[in-house]
Write a structure and sequence with these properties.
single chain, 75 residues, mainly alpha
Length: 75
């Protein structure tokens, strides 16, 4: 069982999220916010008025960007 995050860990996660959001283009910011709020791919495509496949491609690219960001930060 995973232990709960400490206040310091929560603060760091919030800081990282904000840093990443400011580094993203506005369209990717929307996508990221919906992703972390727990929306599904069909919901995201509908909310952003994208085709399912276009939303999937954009999510894939965003996840790749997130992976690289976290690797660069040694997370």
């Amino acid at each position: 069982m995973e232990k709960p995050a400490t206040p310091e860990e929560l603060a760091r996660a919030k800081q990282l999220k904000n840093e990443l959001l400011t580094a993203l283009e506005p369209a990717d910011q929307q996508l990221f916010k919906l992703l972390i709020e727990g929306y599904t791919l069909p919901e995201i495509s509908s909310r952003l008025d994208l085709s399912y496949s276009n939303a999937a491609v954009r999510l894939h690219r965003l996840r790749s960007l997130l992976r690289k960001y976290m690797q660069d930060k040694d997370l």
